[in-house]
Each structure stands twice: as structure tokens, then as C-alpha cells.
């Protein structure tokens, strides 16, 4: 059974097997968590992302999917990039958000990762309400069969931490 832990802080400072990146579909870096991971991880991450774009992900990574690269200079072996959905008032995209967590755990299992650090996918610039993002994240990780021993949610601020803590119990 996977242990869920919560940390308030900087995901790029975590010492884990894999860090999940809330990436954009281009895989070429961006703002928020994505930009921070690329900056701290150094050029090796971007180089592998460019190779992925030049091969099987020519049109980018689809929402809800995940793919791994090196972690570069981060204190991890891999970065698992996943593309979260933008929040919509008109369309329920909850399944796409849940898929980000399931696919990230599937990739972690393929890699042999036992500890994985997750951000609150889609809860930043993609506008997903934090409480609902926490519900989907925690429920999905709990329901997904995986060999990952620790799923660590690394929350940037106190509000996010409290939303996840209310779900973890």
C-alpha cells in the first residue's frame, strides 16, 4: 500500500526517485512548477524533452499522459512530465486530471521508482480549484495499484497544504 505524505515547500528540493512535473504539452519548459524544475534541473532535462518532441511526441504530450526524462541536477533519478487539463466551468475534465496521477504512477512503476513527489497538478495557472484538485489527486493515488511506496504531495503554500491535509485525513 502506498503511503501518502504531505510537505509544504519546493518540489525541486525533494530527495526522491521521481519528481512529477506539471508540464505543458510542448515539454519545453514554462512557468510555475514546470519552469522551476527546468531551471533547477539544468539543461539535461530540456535536451531529453527536445529528443522526445523530435521522436514520438512531435505534436507534444497529450493532456492526461505522462513521460519520463532524466532529472538532471535535481536530487532525483527521473522527472515524470504530465500535462494537466485546464479547469473548465462548461466541461467536466476530472477524468483527465485523474489520468495525470494514474499515468505518472504507471511510468514510476515502469522505472522502478519507489518514492514520487507530486505537485498539485492543474491547481496553479490552469485554474483548477485547490480543494477539488486535492480530492482528485488523493482519491486517484489511493485507488491506483502501484509499487510506489511513498507518494509525496509537495504543496507550495499553506492553503494548498491544508486542502490536501483535509483529504489525507
TrEMBL record:
Keywords, in A-Z order: Hydrolase
EC number of the protein: 3.1.1.106
Protein name in UniProt: O-acetyl-ADP-ribose deacetylase
Superkingdom of the organism of origin: Bacteria
Naturally occurring in which organism (per UniProt): Streptomyces lutosisoli
Keyword field contains Hydrolase: yes
Pfam families: Macro
This protein's record includes keyword Hydrolase: yes
Single annotated GO MF: O-acetyl-ADP-ribose deacetylase activity
SMART domains associated with the record: A1pp
Macro domain location: 1-169
Classification via InterPro entries: Macro_dom, Macro_dom-like
Amino acid at each position: 500500500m502506498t503511503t501518502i505524505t504531505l510537505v509544504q515547500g519546493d518540489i525541486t528540493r525533494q530527495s526522491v526517485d521521481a519528481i512529477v512535473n506539471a508540464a505543458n504539452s510542448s515539454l519545453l519548459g514554462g512557468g510555475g512548477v514546470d519552469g522551476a524544475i527546468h531551471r533547477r534541473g539544468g539543461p539535461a532535462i530540456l535536451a531529453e524533452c527536445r529528443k522526445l518532441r523530435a521522436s514520438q511526441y512531435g505534436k507534444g504530450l497529450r493532456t492526461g499522459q505522462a513521460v519520463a526524462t532524466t532529472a538532471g541536477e535535481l536530487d532525483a533519478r527521473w522527472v515524470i512530465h504530465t500535462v494537466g487539463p485546464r479547469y473548465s466551468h462548461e466541461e467536466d475534465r476530472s477524468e483527465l486530471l485523474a489520468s495525470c496521477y494514474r499515468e505518472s504512477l504507471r511510468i514510476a512503476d515502469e522505472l522502478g521508482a519507489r518514492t514520487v513527489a507530486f505537485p498539485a497538478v492543474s491547481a496553479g495557472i490552469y485554474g483548477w480549484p485547490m480543494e477539488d484538485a486535492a480530492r482528485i489527486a488523493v482519491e486517484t493515488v489511493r485507488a491506483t495499484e502501484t509499487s510506489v511506496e511513498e507518494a509525496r504531495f509537495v504543496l507550495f503554500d499553506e492553503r494548498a497544504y491544508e486542502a490536501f491535509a483535509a483529504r489525507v485525513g
